[in-house]
Amino acid sequence: MPSKGYWIVLIAGIVLSSCDSNQVFDEYKTVPNQWNKDSIISFNITPPDSTKAYNLFVNIRNTSAYKYRNLFLIVDMNFPNGKVIKDTLEYEMAKPNGELLGTGFADVKENKLWYKESVIFKETGEYKVNIQHAMRKNGDVEGIDELEGVTDIGFRIEPAKN
């Protein structure tokens, strides 16, 4: 049975992590077992203020089963008026020695990855953000069908700091 000190640290961690005043939107979707290259993770967002600037992040939770140094993503933002902005992004996920980057204990790491900075949502209505992996092995033309080690995909919006 865990000691009394363990429970105090655990409860304090939960309380501190739940008191996040920086977030405007923060949602995760779980990836079942493996992330298929055709599986698109979507987030519907209604921004709270069309006059303020926000920083946007893609959040990734992964385990040691993730065996690549980088992560390539295709992220598209669909505006209420129908306009779509599509970006291909690359993020470093591990050091050259294979040690995973990110925060967290033991096997699960969480990475808060920059997507866009100082975005102003000028259009009123619902925006949709789609995230899809675009991983392939070196020298291969075809993408990796099933990406292992990614457990959750998240999207986060924070007020931009002046």
Describe the model.
- It is built from 1 helix and 10 strands, in the order αββββββββββ.
- It has 162 residues and is mostly beta strands.
- It has one domain: Jelly Rolls (Sandwich).
- The protein has a 4-stranded antiparallel sheet, with no helix packed on it.
- A hairpin with a 5-residue loop joins strand 5 (70-78) and strand 6 (84-92).
- Residues 5-16 have low confidence and may be disordered.
- InterPro entries: Motility-assoc_lipoprot_GldH.
Strand order of the largest sheet: 1-10-4-7
Helix content, binned percent = under 10%
| Structural class determined from secondary elements | mainly beta
Number of helices: 1
Unreliable residue stretches: 5-16
Q: What is the helix/strand order?
A: HEEEEEEEEEE
The overall number of domains is: 1
CATH architecture: Sandwich
Q: How large is the radius of gyration?
A: 18 Å
Proportion of strand residues? over 45%
The separation of the N and C termini measures 48 Å
Q: Report the average pLDDT across residues.
A: 87
The CATH topology annotation reads as: Jelly Rolls
> What does the main sheet amount to?
4 strands, antiparallel
